[in-house]
Automatic annotation (TrEMBL):
Protein name: Metallo-beta-lactamase domain-containing protein
Pfam family, one: Lactamase_B
Domain Metallo-beta-lactamase: residue ranges: 51-130
Entry annotated with the keyword Zinc: yes
Keyword Metal-binding: yes
Family assignment from sequence similarity: Belongs to the metallo-beta-lactamase superfamily.
Swiss-Prot/TrEMBL keywords: Hydrolase, Metal-binding, Zinc
Native organism: Exophiala dermatitidis (Black yeast-like fungus)
Gene Ontology molecular function: any one: metal ion binding
Top-rank lineage group of the source organism: Eukaryota
Length: 221
């Protein structure tokens, strides 16, 4: 259970965080997310955000989520079937990789992409990143027959094989850490207190949030 207060170890290390407009705009049937549905609000307007993080001391860049892939019609068959039932409209002008490149961020400078979870509106198109970019997922992902092998080898998988094959696939391990933040198991990603991943069993057992430290701890009450 989440704690009403958030306490974490003191550190002067930080990460720089930039919100990335993934250009994805969609509508969703409110009944799929909210109960009861309010009259006049049967359809929700939704955008998808991703985050570019720069670890100042090491110079590493990582992406937290990727939004929706531009060619969403190439999502796995399982996801495509669901979209028609839940998503009345969807528009994606550019892949997140295009947005990064246009803003002067080379794709080979992204050391890691973290998926908060494997939903199609978070995973983007990993195949557009070079093989040097590792993909980081939550606990249980690699051992789940629901997910791996991916589509089309596994016709029922919501994950595309092209997203995971040919690159390092790493699970976050919360078992070896006694650290907790806000009542959640936590992983100190860089080992210096600048960026934490928090385990939250909300959607699936491989779901996690992140906590970014964007200013030195003495300035935080």
């Amino acid at each position: 259970m989440a704690s009403p207060t958030i306490d974490f170890p003191s550190s002067n290390n930080t990460v720089d965080v930039r919100l990335v407009d993934t250009t994805a705009v969609l509508t969703a049937r409110a009944e799929s997310f909210i109960e009861p549905v309010q009259e006049g609000h049967e359809v929700l307007n939704i955008t998808c955000a991703a985050f570019l993080l720069h670890h100042e001391s090491s110079g590493k860049r990582i992406m937290f989520d990727l939004g929706v892939r531009k060619d969403y019609w190439n999502l796995s068959a399982t996801i495509q079937k669901r979209l028609g039932d839940v998503i009345p409209s969807l528009k994606v002008d550019r892949d997140t990789t295009e947005v990064l490149t246009e803003k002067g961020v080379p794709l080979d400078s992204i050391s890691s992409v973290i998926w908060s979870h494997y939903h199609w509106d978070h995973t983007g198109n990993m195949s557009l990143f070079p093989p040097s970019t590792e993909l980081i997922v939550g606990p249980g992902f690699k051992g789940s027959p629901l997910l791996l092998p991916g589509f089309p080898e596994n016709p029922d998988s919501p994950v595309c094989s092209s997203d995971v094959n040919g690159r390092s696939l790493r699970e976050v391990d919360f078992e070896d850490s006694d650290l907790q933040i806000g009542g959640f198991a936590a992983c100190d990603f860089f080992g210096d207190g600048s960026f934490y991943l928090l385990s939250k069993a909300k959607y699936f057992y491989f779901y996690h949030h992140s906590l970014r430290i964007t200013r030195s701890r003495p300035d935080v009450n």
